[in-house]
Amino acid sequence: GAFKKVIEHFGRLDIVVNNAGVNNEKDWESTIQINLTSVIRGTYLGLEYMRKGNGGDGGVIINISSLAGLMPAAFQPVYCATKHGVIGFTRSIAVTASMENYGVRLNTICPGFVNTPILQSIDKEENMGQYYSYKDEIKNMMRFYGVMDPSIIAEGLITIIEDDTLNGEVMKITASQGIHFQEYSQTPFTSSQR
């Protein structure tokens, strides 16, 4: 319904940001549904309205993952799996969009720890389940990596929106290194620039 209302009001859809995220290791099926399935659904809906072969004007889709999508997170295995999934899905569908000339760019942002309500979920046993006893380890990681203000994530988002050369990229944002990109080795079947 939200996609239809945007089209009705503005006549087109240019930007989609799929920013779904919960941290609930106890209700892990819900975590998969919210963190991964909804991002895939939002991407496919966005592509239906935006891709040029379907009457759209093109645009950009940005899926929010996490640094936990790039490394193991022993205390959050399901959260980690969903965020790895967001990266793999986005990079793959970006190649498809390029090959099929959709006119839509797809990229991922992987923030470190951000000062949002999800940070409080590690203190709740009903979220962490069997991993609750490791909450201090996660807090140690937060101290090590630092906690960022959401405004730096917005800055990265604007960079992706404005830079038409970015497609299939994975932007990392950390307190210590700021905005930078994950480097991947070139595979023979992708058109990645990095």
TrEMBL record:
GO terms assigned for molecular function:
15-hydroxyicosatetraenoate dehydrogenase activity; 15-hydroxyprostaglandin dehydrogenase (NAD+) activity
What's an example GO cellular component term for this entry?
cytoplasm
Q: Which reaction does it catalyse?
A: lipoxin A4 + NAD(+) = 15-oxo-(5S,6R)-dihydroxy-(7E,9E,11Z,13E)-eicosatetraenoate + NADH + H(+); (15S)-hydroxy-(5Z,8Z,11Z,13E)-eicosatetraenoate + NAD(+) = 15-oxo-(5Z,8Z,11Z,13E)-eicosatetraenoate + NADH + H(+); 15-oxo-(5S,6R)-dihydroxy-(7E,9E,11Z)-eicosatrienoate + NADH + H(+) = (5S,6R,15S)-trihydroxy-(7E,9E,11Z)-eicosatrienoate + NAD(+); prostaglandin E2 + NAD(+) = 15-oxoprostaglandin E2 + NADH + H(+)
Keywords noted in UniProt: Fatty acid metabolism, Lipid metabolism, Oxidoreductase, Prostaglandin metabolism
Superkingdom of the organism of origin: Eukaryota
Q: Could you confirm whether the keyword Hydrolase appears in this record?
A: no
Instruction: Show the InterPro entries listed in the entry.
Output: NAD(P)-bd_dom_sf, Sc_DH/Rdtase_CS, SDR_fam
Note whether Oxidoreductase occurs among the keywords.
yes
SUPFAM superfamilies, alphabetized: NAD(P)-binding Rossmann-fold domains
GO biological process assignments: prostaglandin metabolic process
Task: Kindly give the Gene3D superfamilies that the UniProt entry links to this protein.
Answer: NAD(P)-binding Rossmann-like Domain
* Pfam families documented for this protein: adh_short (PF00106)
- In short, the EC number is 1.1.1.141, 1.1.1.232
Q: Any idea what job this protein has?
A: Catalyzes the NAD-dependent dehydrogenation (oxidation) of a broad array of hydroxylated polyunsaturated fatty acids (mainly eicosanoids and docosanoids, including prostaglandins, lipoxins and resolvins), yielding their corresponding keto (oxo) metabolites. Decreases the levels of the pro-proliferative prostaglandins such as prostaglandin E2 (whose activity is increased in cancer because of an increase in the expression of cyclooxygenase 2) and generates oxo-fatty acid products that can profoundly influence cell function by abrogating pro-inflammatory cytokine expression.
Q: Which family does it belong to?
A: Belongs to the short-chain dehydrogenases/reductases (SDR) family.
Put simply, this protein is called: 15-hydroxyprostaglandin dehydrogenase [NAD(+)]
